[in-house]
Amino acid sequence: MLNACTNDYPDQCRLLAGFLEQRTNGIEADTAVVFHREEADREKLLCAVPVPKAVLIGLPQARTETMLNQLAELGGSGETAVYLFAGNCFGSELAVRMGQRCGGTFMAAVDGLQCAGEEITVTKSVYGGHMEAEYALKKAPYCLSVSRSSAEPAKETGRSAVAIEERTVREGPENGFSEDYAFIPGKEEKNLETAPFILAAGWGAKSREGVDAMAQAAEKIGAEFGVSRPVAMSAWAPMSSLIGVSGAMTKPEICIAAGVSGAPAFYAGIEKSGFIVSVNSDPRAPIHRKSNVVIVDDWHKVLQHLSEISEKPLKATRKNEE
Amino acid sequence: MMKLLLPFSITPDLEALSEEDWALQPDLKVDTSFTPLDWNSFDESALEMSLKLSDNGAAGSFCFYRCALTVGGMPSDRFLKTLAALKFDELVRVDPGDADLRFRPEVVARLIADFAQTQAHPDFILMGRQTQVGDNACTPLLTAELLGWPCVTQVTALESADEHRLRVTGAVDGGTSVQTVSAPCVLSIGDAPCTYLRVPTLKDKMAYGKKPITLLKLSDFPGAEALLSSPNAELRSLAPIRKEREGVLIEADTPEEKAEILYRDYLKGRLNRL
């Protein structure tokens, strides 16, 4: 189930392709349902689809209540099917609501999917990422959203799908509860998800001034700057800097986690790092056990000296090369 | 007057558990009884956002009736008393008894929907998008479906539009949505900055903190209780997730020396290869 009304459509396709390849067993993916704006280029849409067939549904606006009515029709066909959604805002909401509306089974942020004979089981993280749960799903249709950290997104989705059905949907009374709906595109996101070197600040920064000091240190050493949820929730840094399950899922070569405790919801956002350095004055901070190298000390002094002794920052070097 | 229903949950501080505390009991439970309790952070945002509706200038003159509902044992009463001191109008606790609701969002949603339909009759339901223990991220969505109401998800800001409608800002893929929403509607609260719950004054604690709490049982909600025996998703197993790395400790006398070792032995070569 794909939403091409948003600019993360290629990411959804790559995530689901990666999930199907790496995290499923006994599942054969057959058809994609692609919601798109009426004016979208059909050929481009079909190129990204990671399965052989596609149903294209054109919409005047990307409104979830309208999409949900369409999904309820599909899921109400009585067919025993698994409906997979990417774990973005669209997928996390609609998988659950479709499952409930169709009288089936729903699950958000699934990490793995197995089908053996008649039995379908899924795994997902619970207890704030401390535990993995396995569930047996009992009632079709099975509507699942895929955790953004579950699989390595596929580099290529690999095929071009054939459109087996196309339809256009007019907005109905389902959005009557809402007036003046306006979509405001996000400002250009920082490149956290593609950055090779990241400095991540946690609650140990203690204040907006502390976060600013870390951001300056990041600039000096040539790292992109990100923060944990408590820092963003305190508005010490913009939400676009957030790393973790609610924010960016990064995979840098090097990540320095400073003043970070190491809660799983944050760690999920840096766990694909090649090399992790933790700097925290608390020797019992869980982040230390999840890091390659550990410094137990005052992050401020460590980062200040590090920024003084570092040679030309990476970003400066790159700009010069360009 | 706009009626708001605020279902919320209280959660153990999971970060306070040590590695060995994650041992499973035979009934697939983790003993968290000794850990401090706290607001579920998304629900805390919902509670604070409901209070902020009364703070905003001229719009703050609109009247709100706030009913807080939680499903939990006696320790939750302490949190309900805090809400009483913050002048919430109605406080309700549903005691689940022995029922294990950690991974049963459909039961909790049915309970909330039944409470809304039969007792609270709210215009809007505000609740956090997910809880920490179950990580289900389903309850507000299911509540909306059960009631046949629309749902706005990932809500990050609220304002009064007029006496009956709210101006709702939410995160959507690729940006933000802003809309004026009429009742009834479920609002699922996401990452809303600056929404830590305010602290009641001592004076308000004395004046309002002893407001009675309505105590109900799960058996008062037969529709929810009936769902307990037949889950659509049955929990089979739980296992701790371990994600450990080498954790090589850099030892030196000063932070400056540690920074030098870090740069010389671990970072310089890697940075050059980027």
Layout: helices, strands, pairs:
The complex is a heterodimer of chains A (322) and B (274).
Chain A: E1 2-3, H1 9-22, E2 24-25, E3 31-37, H2 42-48, E4 53-59, H3 64-75, E5 82-86, H4 89-101, E6 105-116, E7 119-126, E8 131-137, E9 142-146, E10 162-168, E11 178-185, E12 197-201, H5 208-221, E13 224-227, H6 229-233, E14 254-258, H7 264-267, E15 275-279, E16 293-295, H8 299-309, H9 314-321
Parallel strand pairs in A: 1-3, 2-6, 3-4, 4-10, 5-9, 6-9, 12-13, 12-14, 14-15, 15-16
Antiparallel strand pairs in A: 6-7, 7-8
Chain B: E1 2-8, E2 10-12, E3 37-39, H1 41-52, E4 64-71, H2 77-85, E5 90-95, H3 105-120, E6 124-128, H4 139-147, E7 151-160, E8 165-172, E9 175-182, E10 185-189, H5 202-208, E11 214-217, H6 222-227, E12 233-240, E13 248-249, H7 255-273
Parallel strand pairs in B: 1-4, 1-6, 4-5, 5-11, 6-10, 7-10
Antiparallel strand pairs in B: 2-3, 7-8, 8-9
User: Any idea what the shape of chain A is?
Assistant: elongated
Spatial order of strands in the largest sheet of chain B: 9-8-7-10-6-1-4-5-11
Runs of chain A with pLDDT <50, length 5+? 316-322
Distance between the termini of chain A: 40 Å
Let me know the average pLDDT of chain A: 91
Low-confidence stretches of chain B: none
Overall tally of structural domains of chain B: 2
Main beta sheet of chain A: strand number and arrangement? Answer: 6 strands, mixed
- State the order of secondary-structure elements of chain B, H for helix, E for strand: EEEHEHEHEHEEEEHEHEEH
Query: By CATH's scheme, which homologous superfamily of the largest domain in chain B applies?
Result: HUPs
Largest sheet of chain B: 9 strands, mixed
Shape of chain B: globular
Mean pLDDT metric of chain B: 94
Care to count the β-strands of chain B?
A: 13
Q: Label the structural class of chain A.
A: alpha/beta
Level-2 CATH architecture of the largest domain in chain B: 3-Layer(aba) Sandwich
Percentage of residues in helical conformation of chain B = 25-40%
Radius of gyration of chain A (Å): 22 Å
> What is the strand tally of chain A?
16
Just give the CATH class of the largest domain in chain B.
Alpha Beta
> What's the CATH architecture name of the largest domain in chain A?
3-Layer(aba) Sandwich
